[in-house]
């Protein structure tokens, strides 16, 4: 709370109300409107919650105008260059970077929980062979509340921490199993001698018939993507996790709800939409034609993976992943027409005045989709890849909320339906 306030006057009643101004460590000042309805009888209207702060949080700070993203105060650029995903996970969960002893213990805990109950594989086997992996992921994660009933007291800090570690550990296992179900391959169990990203690649692509060697460039690119996707403040899926969590629901149900929200093409499905767009364009020779369509306000075509609702400047994550994208393509020696097409689109977006003036730069979804394709990860798995990284953000936000007093989420509405009217019998209806 600051000493500042804004005074609101209702001209009809003559009543006035002082709205206190709240200030965080950084970011825009925020009006406290909790007394607006009781005192003046008004609610606020904010479609999409674009100017509404729903909570206080210590975890992630974003300045969209300046292109800043920080986890617990650390710039994403420094973490991406020097850290690992599990070290970043520890930071998001506990608030500080770990000592070497703390990190080793945390890595052991995550590694210990990578296995899933064998009945989970049976459950996955019950899905239709071509079920979308996100359908499997949301169903399986929700079902874990039935496997771990003994540790579901959301008021017990130890139970909350254990659930958080389980989900961070098991999300790659379940995601890989969903892919293998689609492929008709037998389950691949986690190899605990590998690190987090290497283990996931091994579970995805190893087959009993031959040895599988993890490409270190691919593993590092994947680890980097997990870091960049780990948290992003109160986005749609994180807000969903918090809203469900406000009811006292168990953490598996909350994260399953987050997965469902992430599935949408406007959110986690954006990188999948990028590849669909590239497939629609089809060839480098048609890039100019589609760029012209994108500039035409009357044409329904839109370039996916460009610009961002939050960032009014270059997405800081895109700056980081752009180099990794080019490194992966160079190391793997990929010759793919769609990748050539993507690089041509990138070149135009970074040089064309139309895109530069509107700050429609390639975002993290644009580059992540290209990397996933280069690694041989199918388009349907792009959103589960996002979910693996974002799980740590979801559970960190859920833990923060569960540890502090909070009210059940209950947005209001502007009612636009009929006013009161009397029932008319069916025989009398025209």
UniProtKB/TrEMBL annotation:
Keywords: Acyltransferase, Transferase, Tricarboxylic acid cycle. One of its GO terms (biological process) is tricarboxylic acid cycle. GO terms for molecular function: citrate synthase activity. It catalyses: oxaloacetate + acetyl-CoA + H2O = citrate + CoA + H(+). The active site is at 308, 365. Pathway: Carbohydrate metabolism; tricarboxylic acid cycle; isocitrate from oxaloacetate: step 1/2. GO terms for cellular component: cytoplasm. Pfam families: Citrate_synt. PROSITE patterns: CITRATE_SYNTHASE. It comes from the Bacteria. Belongs to the citrate synthase family. PANTHER family: CITRATE SYNTHASE. This is Citrate synthase. It comes from Wenzhouxiangella limi. The lineage of its organism: Bacteria, Pseudomonadati, Pseudomonadota, Gammaproteobacteria, Chromatiales.
